[in-house]
Structures are given as C-alpha cells and as structure tokens.
Amino acid sequence: MSIVIEHVSKRFDDIEVLNDVNLEVWPGELIALLGPSGCGKTTLLRILAGLDHPDTGRISVNGVEVTNQHISKRRVGFVFQHYALFRHLSVADNVAFGLTVLPRAERPPSQQIQSKVQELLALVQLQDMANRYPAQLSGGQRQRVALARALAVEPKLLLLDEPFGALDAKVRKELRRWIRRLHDELQVTSILVTHDQEEALEITDRVVVMHQGRIEQVGTPDEVYEHPITPFVCHFLGDVNIFHCRVPHCHLDLQQKDSGQDFPPQLTEGEEVTFVRPHELALKRTRSSSYEWEATVRYIVTAGARVHIELIASNTNQIIDVELTKERYRDLRLNEDEVVYVHPKQLQVFRAPIPVPL
Description:
Blueprint (H helix, E strand, L loop, with lengths): L2 E10 L2 E11 L4 E5 L6 H9 L6 E6 L2 E2 L10 E4 L11 H10 L9 H14 L15 H14 L4 E5 L7 H18 L2 E6 L2 H7 L2 E6 L2 E6 L1 H6 L4 H6 L4 E7 L22 E7 L4 E4 L8 E9 L4 E8 L5 E7 H7 L6 E6 L3 E4 L7
Parallel strand pairs: 3-8, 3-9, 6-7, 7-8
Antiparallel strand pairs: 1-2, 1-4, 4-5, 9-10, 11-12, 12-18, 13-17, 14-15, 14-17, 15-16
Helix pairs in contact: 2-3, 2-4, 3-4
C-alpha cells in the first residue's frame, strides 16, 4: 500500500499544527514520524486514519484520493499508547471485536472469527491467555493484544501512536524489536509515531523528522543521524555539543579571543553554529594542535558500554560532553580535576540561529 500526502495543512483555532506537509510512504515499509511533543505527528497520523481531516491538501492511497473518506472505508489498524482495551472483555473477545462489529454482509462466520483470533494470538505469543482479562496482563502483553486487535481486520495500513510510551525501558526495547520482526513477516505498510530517537533509529526503514508542523528531513536512520540537513535535526537526534563562531575569526568559543587562529576553511562568512557529538571528540593529555581546546575534567561516569565525561572549557566555562570507549579511558587514566585537550574528529556546521532547546 503506497500513501502520498500532498500539501497537507491543519489548524486548531489559532494554532497551526501542520504546515504544507508532503510525504510519500512506500508499500510495505515501516516509517517513523519523529519529533518533540506538539510537532504535529499525531495529528498527521489521525488524518491518515480518517479521525481528522486536513484544512488543505490531499491524501492518496494506491493512487486513489481518500482525503474525505470515512474511517470505516480505509481499512486502517490503529494501535494507541494506552492500549484502549475493553476491560470487561477477555483477550480473545478484544481481538475479535473489530470483526464482530462489521456490517452483517461483511462479517465472517463465528467459526472463522474464532480461528482468526487463535491465529493472531499465536502470532503475538499470547495463545495461552485467550480467556484472561486486560487487568490480568502486563503492560507489554496488553500492547500485544492491542496490536492483534488492529491486525484482525487485515488492515492495509497499520498506524502506531506512541505504542511503547507507557512501558518501562526494558519491556519497551524488547517489544519494539518484536514488532520489527513481526512487520518483516507481515509486510503491512506501517507508520509509527514516537518522540524516542533510539526507537525510531533502531527499527524503522525511514525516519520523518518533524518540527513545528513541518517535515525537516526524511531519510534512512543512518542518513538523518549521520547527515542532518538542518540544525534542528542534528540537535534532536542524539546528544550534541553546540558551539558558536563567526568566520573569519572563529574559535568555537573555546580558544582565546585574541589567539588569531581560525577554524578549518569549510566555514563560510558570517555567524555559524557548530555541532559536535560527544563520541566525535578525542581527548589528549598534551596539546599537539592549535585546534585542540584546553578543558578540565569535571565528572566521570563509567557505568555502561561507554565512559561519559563532562568537561568545562578553560576559557569560557562552557560544559563539554565527551564519550570514550572503555579502552581509551583506561589508556588515558583520567581523574576528575585534571586538565586535558579536546580535539573534534567530525563537525556538523550550520548557520545560526540554533534550534529551540528541547
């Protein structure tokens, strides 16, 4: 199922929620609408489902316009953040609900519905819990029931609105990987709404980064993370250090103002904003280049796969976050309050202004 969104805009009173959104979703792919709260991603999802309608623009499915088509005609499965299960119905009855409320002419026979329910419960690994009620399930199990219910009507499009938001971190990680495997098996065109960068980058084919009702960038997880095209995308995806400079006298606010040293020549005339990810900063005990900045170790966190180090720049008191491998940290033998020199291995440079802090 292919989806084409063309020039879609939406306002609620005086608030512009979507502003000229254009997007194509390819058949069988899993994409993420990623962005901070209020960026318009859930509104766009509801418009795709037929729960809301755009003020302007059009939605096409497999080449047919469905902009004003009723939700019952769209064959969409919707999974909500808080499950929306019926507490008085068993697991099996919750899964069967979408089939039992179909018009009589479209409703499958009872035996076929029961068979479909058993098939779906096996698919989501809950076949032994058919007679339980939602209150007797864990959060992860409830979300799998909600997913089975959405799949029961054999949707052309599966929409997932923050489906893991109410789960703890460990269950959330296990369930999202499980959904990726399930998607690969079913090949249903799926759109996931999330504000969790790790979630979007880990399981989706493409990521749609949204901000203030607009699409900032669309690309594979590697493309949007490694090659952001706007300051917001760079700032939103992962941790970054933000430095300011003005060419031709650019010192990233970390060198002496009168040092007379300019930063590498890829920068252009005017004020720029430079982003450096913590893992793209190297530390040394002695200075060997004019582009290494003196800083003092302020805090060290060794728990986890990498060592996180907080520095404070000697000249400006700017805080700098650095990530090192355990091996490099052991080689340096760093301690708090030691002086070190920082060298950027890779930069992302954009013109000011910087994005609004999140």
